Amino acid sequence: MGWAIALHGGAGVPLSLPPERRLPREAALRHCLDAGIAALKAHKHPLDVVELVVRELENHPDFNAGKGSVLTASGTTEMEACIMDGKTKRCGAVSGLTTVVNAISLARLVMEKTPHIYLGFGGAEAFAREQGVEAVDPSYFITTENIERLKQAQEANRVQIDYTQPIQKEVKNDGAIADGDSQIGTVGCVAVDNEGNLASATSTGGLVNKMVGRIGDTPIIGAGTYANHLCAVSATGIGEEIIRGTVARDVAAVMEFKGLSLKEAAAYVVDQAPPGAAGLVAVSSTGEVAMPFNTPGMFRACATEDGYSEIAIWDSPSK
Asked: In the chain, N or C: fewer CB atoms in 10 Å?
């Protein structure tokens, strides 16, 4: 048994993603992985580790969470996040945030400071003000890139994931969900310490051109985020499919009731999802790591106490 950490920056990454879009994200993954490793080596609790890493990912404008959140059909941001402790199954979730800089930290406050699990929209914003968390004008979250993504999605009359590349005007679009650089975006982190304590955290801006008020899988316990005594899971992909498949909980259930290893269970669950719909990162209480996906690629990174580390997007890892 030893510590382990895994994180993701969203699934659905096309093979055609150009270097100028790929390299900053790879560098951010490496930075966040290093921060998580340092925290685990300093004997921080996995809850603290996953919150720290997801905050860093939220603050990076190239990922679909926090600063980089994609826009709704009305040109606004509605962010959501969830955090869960494996040993106690305590958890907190938020949706519909428009001013909170780090949604994941508000989710943890819901877990620790309220009798509830999930707060949304106006109630979540009011709770944030009551707790004194950092908030900004909604314009802070609206980036030029995401304005272009929204315009592209509306011209194609579709809801899309966030790594979809801009469509050339002369190319007729067939309405597919994603074919280039949009962002199936979500960010997430899972960690386990030397004592087998597990935690999971996930944060997202959702889908490009989503309806105002839409809630995805990220803040739904057992869908996009889950942790228990066996494993911690953070999923990414098309939220509606992940909710239908109860993806994160199913990994733990398959381990418990079928007796599969983490890698076997995670691969089985992702294989059950529709092609192109899902990916996840997971760690087990014994320090095993799994990062399967059925999309073209998934921004991901992991490290274990025995010295193994990986940063990858497609099938070939860069170590």
From this structure: C
